[in-house]
């Protein structure tokens, strides 16, 4: 049947910033949806606040609003654009919740906008825990015994009826936010309170424990004629009780009988029909009791989900693209399969390989946080691997994790444990659970005991035990490398053993294993992901490696360039780098090259089958990339766009004879080598904070005293700010050293800390001759906060012209001396009108997408063109005017997920994602960015102010501004006295330690709308931590720096003066204004 002709313009809602539970898989789905709708001739309008996404590129939608994804802002876009339809199923829980709010408030009816993809009734049936339970029972399906609670007393009543342990699931939340497992009344009261606060409708489901049951998910598609297909069935290795986002998952199902699968399939079809998702995809989760086979329905997502992205990459079936086409009236039998060009979307994928997904965690960033895995998601990324067997794909996934594992092996740091300690570890699921299984086997604990303690299916444990036994046998027999003949090596490779893993087992170098393997002609073949197990010919080279004789490689017809992606998301290396890799692929294809992408992240756009000419879903290791390069024979390899992951491979690949495009590994090394870089800075006459390298704890104390406190300290191995700290005294330094950051031959870098300096980020590009600055960003927080966690503004608002000119000169000289070809990021600090260089990275930075959106130039695409020989002049790139608008980047930090962690910002990065606010002036741009990050600024109410003695005088003008804007001020005694002495009325409240009611009570009672809490020194006091934790738990904005407080007052002023309007404007219009300015003025600033 034909697509709908009664609608012409469709509004698509994005997911906003990357957060735990809602990551870059929604960039993948949103990008696919926008492209699919445009291909069908519809006008597409997009709202999304995340600048690091491909979907917010101006070419993806017809008009792109980089605005907060909230009901009030989307209403303004609807009033301006007048779309006929709204597609809410591509932006995760955020867009679904906004769509429900718009529908229930009457906005959609007011403007005649129809929900497509999922109707309001279907969304509410799936998301409302009580309605969902009733519907499942109505259609004859089982659900866990449960009850709904909307307040604390109802939670206690339901809890008494169900009995402990109890699983708590808040309604309308993402990633299990606010949920958990309660084993007693005290835990139930605590988790129920969190869940009620997290749920936008203040509703939680309390569910009987199905802990230890097998968990499975089915991805289901339905069209308007009631055709239903199962796209992928995914099995969790971890049992119920671990959030599926934190669980290791496998496809296809490995331990389920055909009879059980058919029951699951029938149930899934019943669910999607009963809920009424009439067009599009849904994710349905089930539990199976391993004792009696009882199947229960756990929940349903009536939208594209995190698992949808995994299922798409696992099968080659583009779920988001097909869902978008179904939403506009096409049916499954009308939509072609891009990969086979012969079958239709109604054809269910079949897999002749095994896919394993393993989540990536960053608990080390949140010290003090509980690392137990529960129903609330805590992982920040994931890796996917493909092999012909579970063992092969599992070991490939482990080495793709980039956490120091080469495969299934023991971690020495956790190897010292007795019998009872191993049992304790195995009984509490954590991110160490897999390596702890190896350790337990080493300690003599039997597979049967491990199964009993972990509730992991015996089939998985048996497979892991076989790898363990093979490894131990290799160690015990004491074979030399030469003893590994072709047959033995092939067997090991087919079990997933990597070169480095074998090298460690046999006590030789990885290079020796690589050479021996090649001499025996033990090399991988490459198979295609074709959706049909080779039943039909495939035309899309989407490849994975395995050690079989047959290879399904396509012959190349153009010169090839290899692009190395960033691997699994983690704090410090996320979607921003995937954005750069996608742009490189697009640029290379335009220039006549075949773009060959290598990546292991199933959430990303770069691993979409139609982004590059060839896609290899492989771990980013020296071995795996070398194998690909050996058969592809590329003109060169791009390593500087994917973050640290590919950069670490550059020297190894170069030593194996492969050309690294762009800035040379030697130049990158020079920028990272402290002594060589220091000499370069001196030669150029530039300034750096005084620094030194200590090789022992005693030397560190001596050097810090010589430099003078405060100092910045970090281990020499640091990446992404890990373990960096600002220390203000010798006691602080001794405490830091005692935490183990200076063990053995570890070197400690010690630098003068420029207190109260302003930090500046600069992105630039060079072709080896000319250098052009892409953007100069001023940090709103003072130096000392990691640039990835800092709010920044472009163009700068307070940097003197003299300093700007010094920056331009320094950037040009550095690019010239480092022989930069491509992108470069430089971090500066300004103190007492003196410019200091903090760091230079001759590679893509995480700010490139933001700068690209702010300036209207796709800088990563330009960089890729430069790397293959184009000049900036040829590409039309020259020094540019400042944009006529203000862009502010803000961040999202998941303190709420890690209840025991210290809440403070410092030199160690903790944010998971970013947002962008754009407006004609700074205040409104800042307010938009804060709203998009989930920290909406109040325009009235009461502000709590607590400031250290160091900052009290600086705070008086801020307090004056807030009072004049109509806010009531409240403070503890010392701060209140200073504010009152300045003639500003201020109420008094108790500190937490001074009795009750205190400030925390007031926050919990809803009496405080904004917290300004500015301590001195490196960390906040105990009172400060309690205040910040309460504010975060109860969604009250918190400001922790003087400069941040000034920005907040500017934002509130803009909101108060805007008559409730956010002055929304499309990115395309902002870019047209830049072009107009460029063409009408010759002046360059």
Q: N-to-C terminal Cα separation, in Å?
A: 57 Å
Beta strand %: 15-25%
Structural class: alpha/beta
The rough form would be described as globular
> How many DSSP E strands?
38
Question: Can you give the mean pLDDT?
Answer: 90
Summarize the structure.
This protein has 37 helices and 38 strands. By secondary structure, it is α/β, with parallel strands linked by helices. The relative contact order is 0.08.
Map the helices and strands.
Elements: E1 9-13, H1 25-39, E2 43-47, E3 63-65, H2 71-81, E4 85-87, H3 92-104, H4 107-111, E5 114-115, H5 120-127, H6 129-138, E6 146-149, H7 152-162, E7 166-170, E8 180-182, H8 185-198, E9 204-208, E10 214-222, E11 228-236, E12 249-251, H9 258-275, E13 280-288, E14 295-301, H10 306-315, H11 319-327, E15 354-360, E16 381-387, H12 390-400, H13 419-427, H14 433-442, H15 447-454, H16 458-477, H17 486-494, H18 499-506, H19 510-519, E17 525-528, E18 542-546, E19 560-564, H20 575-590, E20 594-599, E21 614-617, H21 622-632, E22 636-638, H22 644-647, H23 650-655, H24 665-672, H25 674-683, E23 691-694, H26 697-707, E24 711-715, E25 725-727, H27 730-741, E26 748-752, E27 758-767, E28 771-782, E29 792-794, H28 801-817, E30 821-831, E31 834-841, H29 848-855, H30 859-867, E32 886-892, E33 913-919, H31 922-932, E34 942-947, H32 952-964, E35 968-971, H33 973-981, E36 987-988, H34 999-1004, E37 1010-1014, H35 1022-1033, E38 1038-1039, H36 1042-1056, H37 1067-1080
Parallel strand pairs: 1-2, 1-4, 2-3, 4-5, 18-21, 19-20, 19-22, 20-21, 34-35, 34-37, 35-36, 37-38
Antiparallel strand pairs: 6-9, 7-8, 7-9, 10-11, 10-13, 11-12, 12-15, 13-14, 15-16, 17-18, 23-26, 24-25, 24-26, 27-28, 27-30, 28-29, 29-32, 30-31, 32-33
Helix pairs in contact: 1-10, 1-11, 5-6, 7-8, 13-14, 15-16, 18-19, 20-30, 26-27, 31-36, 32-36
